[in-house]
Amino acid sequence: MKTALITGITGQDGAYLAELLLEKGYMVHGIKRRASLINTDRIDHLYQDPHEHDPRLILHYGDMTDSMNLTRVIQETQPDEIYNLAAMSHVKVSFDIPEYTANADGIGTLRILEAVRLLGLEKKTKVYQASTSELYGLVQAVPQSETTPFYPRSPYAVAKLYAYWITVNYREAYGMFACNGILFNHESPLRGETFVTRKITRAVAQIALGQQETLYIGNLDAQRDWGHAKDYVEAMWLILQQEVPEDFVIATGITTKVRDFINMAFAHVGFHLRWEGAGVEEVGILDRIDEQQFAFATGLPFDPVSFKHLNHKLVEVDPRYFRPTEVDLLIGDPTKSRERLGWQPKYDLHSLVEEMVISDLNWYRDNLHLVSQKPHFED
Ligand code: NDP
Ligand code: GDR
């Protein structure tokens, strides 16, 4: 039985990857942070009761900023494969906590690689590093491939640039099987609530259910190459199964504007928008309702009395969500991963949006009582 260690197992990708590796028969260890609230929601369905049988999923407390902890966990678990997914992963927040981001995302990667080396595991343990399309930053060329120059545009991306190169360096210096997956944006119903896609699908669900009036959003013109996290964790695994350690771009090759993602998500509940104004004045107005689609998506009869807001502003721009330096356009070239890994995404953007909207509709419909009692902070 192969043994894997996943840092960031409680995150979106960690959850899908843990599920995939368990299906493949792996023994899976994960590192989770101590928090004042239980933070294992995304992997609770994978829990195995140690009182009933020997579990194949074991969690260890740890943190990317604690070298001794990481070294001990690696020593105890002796993994064949480490998937280093843990990171402070929010680009906008990295401008607020740049030093912590550098420590966890940049030096954290060094801690993992150096622990493997110090423990003499460099010929046994393969390391996957969660690199990112944010490395490309300010557009140099499109589509972006393994050979496109990097120009990071946030403290997050700069920290990830260090992590990228230290991974390459340990591979070259010590012959380690250490690889970067340069993954473009990938989303799912498990996506963190403050990333733009999930923020949109949550707002669409709440607006359709009459629980929210308006979606406040940042840059509508940013373009992203969005895929489904389930497809992308498959690529992570494939990267570590190759004969030779190499770096790979994982992307769909299709880019979409934030505004068009919003249109697609609202269309799924039968709401069609028209856009007026420009820049910070731009608004998305409810132009037309497809009543049949509304009833189909929400499972509720369309009630014209409660939907008195045709011409209501459903989307407004709030500069609070702008970044000091933005990444305007990401579009990946997945040729190498298709040809060498045989990797192809199974989901398209339409099915991704649909799955996310349905999941949020279900959640907000079932938890109406919680939502109305529980205001929360937005990012
Ligand atoms: P998430 O933000 O959903 O998950 C991040 C994980 O890292 C969580 O488990 C989090 O724990 C953990 N974590 C954060 N800081 C620390 C720390 N100091 N010590 C230990 N654990 C920590 O990210 P994703 O799952 O979306 O992404 C996974 C990785 O892939 C990240 O490194 C991200 O930067 C990178 N990436 C993501 C892409 C995407 O589109 N999703 C694209 C390219 C790269 P907790 O649950 O306690 O917060
Ligand atoms: P990104 O994802 O920065 O690409 O990083 P995010 O979803 O946060 O932003 C995508 C684009 O949407 C614009 N945007 C907004 N973003 C957020 N979060 N909230 C808003 O209200 C909003 N309005 C517009 C952003 O400006 C941006 O252009 C993600 C993370 O998962 C990283 O960890 C990962 O490395 C990259 O994807 C690839």
Kindly describe this structure.
The chain has helices spanning 12-23, 67-77, 91-94, 98-118, 155-174, 196-208, 229-240, 258-268, 291-298, 335-341, 349-366, 368-373, and strands at 3-7, 27-32, 57-61, 81-84, 126-132, 178-183, 186-187, 215-217, 223-224, 227-228, 248-250, 256-257, 271-276, 283-289, 313-317. It has 379 residues and is of the alpha/beta class. The strands form four sheets. Strands 3-2-1-4-5-6-11 form a seven-stranded parallel sheet, sandwiched between helices. A four-stranded mixed sheet has the order 8-15-14-13. A two-stranded parallel sheet has the order 7-10. Bound molecules: NADPH dihydro-nicotinamide-adenine-dinucleotide phosphate and guanosine-5'-diphosphate-rhamnose. NADPH dihydro-nicotinamide-adenine-dinucleotide phosphate binds at residues 7-8, 10-14, 31, 33, 35, 39, 63-65, 85-89, 104, 130, 132, 183, 185-186, 192. This is GDP-mannose 4,6-dehydratase. It holds the Pfam family GDP_Man_Dehyd. Its cofactor is NADP(+).
